[in-house]
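Same chain as my last thread, 370 residues:
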Amino acid sequence: MKTALVHEWLTPYATGGAELVVKEILNIISADLYALIDFESTNPNSYLYKRKIGTTFLQHLPSSARHIQQYLPFFPLAIEQLDLTGYDVIISSSHAVAKGVITTPYQVHICYCHSPMRYAWDLTFDYLRDSGKGFKSFVARYILHQLRQWDVISSHRVDYFIANSHHIAKRIGRCYGREATVIYPPVAVDDFPLQVEKEDFYITVCRLVSYKKVSLLVEAFNELGKPLLIIGDGGEYNSLKSMAKSNITFLGRVDFATMKYYLAKARCFVYGALEDFGIAIVEAQACGTPVIAYAVGGAGETVLDIREYPKNGTGVLFKEQNKESLMEAVKIFEEKKSLFNPYQCRLNAEKYSVKVFQEQFSQFYQSVLR
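reply #2:
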């Protein structure tokens, strides 16, 4: 079966869970690769170096490598220009428009959906706040309205949906009225060392942007006075640093080895954002580090709350995305910290390993072909 794999964008600046899914699918299935833009096939450090990758007209627009989101209104038009008529099977890895490729009734289209289009749904009001008021705001509202309509229409071009969590499967049902099979994304568990002995500090690792809710962590730990290490960079770096007290340390962007070192040594990993899945949450557990996280979203599936699982708990979940709820979770963690077993954290993380993903995706793919 001749297969095409379609992703949104391939650049050195996009290295998250969606890109890991693309990499592992290519390790399982022989497929031709397509994307809105590609700057990885010319990157000597990439596994895609010198690979032939089909792209769209967005490839040639100014600043598309770093600022592809500025061309958001053109995404649907661009993805529909990819001619995939020569393929038997289409696999789309989609968090925006990849699922919108045009297919024929004689092709099978499998979509691994990381999320319904965030720009049109979850991040709508963030975009509207950034657009200000007046005519610019009106244009933004109209564009987002059109994108929501296109997003729903394009969902009918998919034969089979895979969701990266039960949280996303519910969103697919709500937005598209479709059922989805859950296959968790691959986490490179073997790349993270199990560390049994811990030091006396908390840690978070993420991009410092508004929806990651790092300000929530800073506010809580300002009052708690406990040491917190923040690894990551982003638009909120300076504002967060200015509001943080001396017990909070910012390391900025660090290399992979440094990140792993501190993640393994930390007493606990803290996360305040609503994540579709949350790879960093699983990576922390792979190191034997328990997690305090917001209960909604992927964390509610990957973290075993010690109050519900006293023998094999891997963290504490808080239900309200506010300072008081997070501080209460930290208090509970401190009271029950002797119950946490690093080996149980590691064992839980291994449920989401690369090997598990490869087995489950292969089985699903073969069942579809049969």
